[in-house]
Amino acid sequence: MLEIKSGGPEALLNKKTALSSNGDKEKIPYKIAFVVQRYGLEINGGAEYLCREVAEHLSKYFDINVITTCAIDYVTWKNEYDAGETCINGVSVKRFPVDFPRDLKRFNKCSEKVLCKVHSFDEETEWMKLQGPYSTELFKFIGDSKDDYDLFFFFTYLYCTTFFGLPLVADKAILVPAAHDEPPVYLSIFNETFHIPRAIMYNTKEEKDFVIRHFGNGHVPYDIAGSGVSLSEEAHSSNSPKEIIKEDFITYMGRIDESKGCGELFDFFRRYKKEKPSSIKLVVLGKAVMKIPSHPDIIYLGFVSEEEKYNILKNSKILIMPSKYESLSMVLLEAWYCWKPVLVNGQCDVLKGQCIRSNAGLWYENYDEFSACLNLLLADEHLRDQLGDKGRQFVDMHYSWETIEKKYLNLIERVI
What we know:
By secondary structure, the chain is an alpha/beta fold. It is built from 16 helices and 14 strands.
């Protein structure tokens, strides 16, 4: 089946929405579960953040329950949240304990076998259990509650919550895979995962093309949404970047991790500074899970508020995204929302594709291209303004929350 076209959400709202006595719209009487490996205000990146954003926006229309674990850390899966039900920004969240934390030594040994050597299907399944987070109580709840929900959204293909949970309710499931060209996606255990849901919501055209090409699942109904952008423009932080950083700067936002290309970014930036001395700084925002090199021109600010993030993007020359593996880069959208151009790793089809479609960024595949692109962008303010304007137009056209909500409403209508 081909792409599900937009145009149906108004019919759904007209049929299912009534006005209450105070004039507000009542919720559509569907109960929908969002299943994700971890969930909370402290978790502000990747598929988990996308899940929270979509859940909060769709809670205007439906009764939404999030089904997740008690874990915060994606490396250890240690139970840190209390089990049970809580409410976050108006959304009900049900947490279940993880059976066991990740045994890193055993997981790494198993990963080496299944990702690099001849192995069996059972060994892949064992790898998935070690990947985590494995929660017997969560899987039991999903199976026992199948008739209590009209629909289940499963966020990201890569973890136990989807792998073991989705088959229990496949005839009511929509997968949001957040898939990209990485070693685990080639494991045979995922063939079923991409064939059995009622529908799939992709984040980008590149993700959709890759998944259909690899899994041959073009018969599964789909749409392409991504995430809306909701940065606060009320930038009234007392710590503006002009007070923190006196010189010009470029910005990286996200998890500071080798897997995100940060090691290469630090190496490239230090080499660039050595070859082309200047006052330009690299400002780094996010959680560090690798060592950040000590360098006078690399400024690590850790986590910042939404207002501070907006201030930093607004005052940055460009945003750099060095990752090779992305299914959607929300920080690119946020940079474009702030009229800023981007420089991305051209080995990532998704990032390169976003730049091509928006005409709002450049890309590199090696140090020489990194240096040349950075020189061009830093030297030409007019070019930066042109690219930034194109980026804002692209976000306004394709990534407003109104647009994203309509895509989800349309897919929900078609499946239910």
